[in-house]
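Practice problem 4.
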């Protein structure tokens, strides 16, 4: 087995121009498959709120929810770096609560690093977390936890002023100590300039091909998303369709008594069946028929 992906490996990959592959994961079997496919980073995204927990946004998911998912992912994969997304409310209040919650992800759930959104108060949080020895991935551009403040789930950095603001945020997050930076839904020219301006790797999602790596949400990539799929998604399979076809076949087989068949059952020798039936007939199994 290859050794665990380290922060140094990621920095070296950027230097060598090797792309960093990231995917979200929320359970052990997915983590196992992602590892088998040689993914570098598994992000236990707070997108779990929508993809697996059925919420309308990422806001309601709790630290306790995310700890369960992160633990499952950490049990499923050894080599990829495991990054736990700090959910809304778990780091905004103070540096102290941010560190307290991040420690839980590392200590109780096996995360190697955490991700936090934004660049305002987040800068001070990044410094506090890094001081506490916890590696931090930043996230700017479309930051779903502040979608309401941003006017909805909209691309960011489409004017020169906004682009400059994003570039300044990226540089500040690097100085604060982030080891990598997610750029979500920003135009490629902006992502290109940011990627050149900072030494830490940029991981793009809807940010074009010049980023040092890419991330996609598991359910989007595999065709499991119910509802709107952003334009930046490339769907690599229709697992949702395959699951639905299989479930419909199962439903029909059960209803038509085609399942289970003989090979799905356990054998019992005839002699024992006859004995059992004789005992039943004699009423010797404790329940009289009269
Ligand atoms: O929560 C998530 O899945 C994310 C990725 C989209 C970057 O933050």
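Answer key:
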């Amino acid at each position: 087995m290859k050794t665990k992906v380290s922060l140094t490996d990621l920095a070296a990959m950027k230097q060598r121009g090797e792309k960093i592959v990231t995917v979200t994961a929320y359970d052990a079997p997915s983590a196992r498959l992602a590892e088998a496919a040689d993914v570098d980073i598994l992000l236990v995204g707070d997108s779990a709120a929508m993809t697996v927990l059925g919420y309308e946004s990422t806001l309601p998911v709790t630290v306790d929810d995310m700890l369960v998912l992160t633990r499952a992912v950490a049990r499923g994969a050894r080599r990829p770096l495991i990054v736990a997304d700090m959910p809304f409310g778990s780091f905004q209040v103070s540096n102290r609560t941010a560190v307290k919650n991040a420690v839980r992800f590392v200590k109780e759930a096996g995360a190697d690093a955490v991700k936090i959104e934004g660049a305002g108060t987040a800068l001070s949080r990044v410094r506090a977390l890094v001081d506490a020895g916890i590696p931090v991935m930043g996230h700017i551009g479309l930051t779903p936890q502040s979608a309401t403040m941003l006017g909805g789930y909209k691309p960011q950095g489409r004017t020169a002023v906004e682009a400059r603001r994003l570039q300044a945020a990226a540089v500040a997050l690097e100085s604060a100590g982030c080891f990598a930076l997610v750029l979500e839904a920003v135009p490629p020219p902006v992502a290109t300039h940011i990627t050149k301006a900072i030494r830490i790797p940029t991981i793009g999602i809807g940010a074009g091909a010049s980023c040092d790596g890419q991330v996609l949400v598991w359910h989007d990539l595999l065709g499991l998303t119910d509802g709107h799929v952003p334009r930046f998604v490339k769907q690599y399979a229709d697992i949702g369709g395959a699951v639905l076809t299989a479930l419909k076949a199962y439903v029909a087989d059960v209803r038509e008594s085609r399942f289970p068949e003989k090979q799905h059952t356990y054998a019992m020798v005839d002699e024992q069946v006859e004995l059992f039936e004789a005992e039943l007939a004699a009423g010797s199994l404790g329940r009289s028929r009269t």
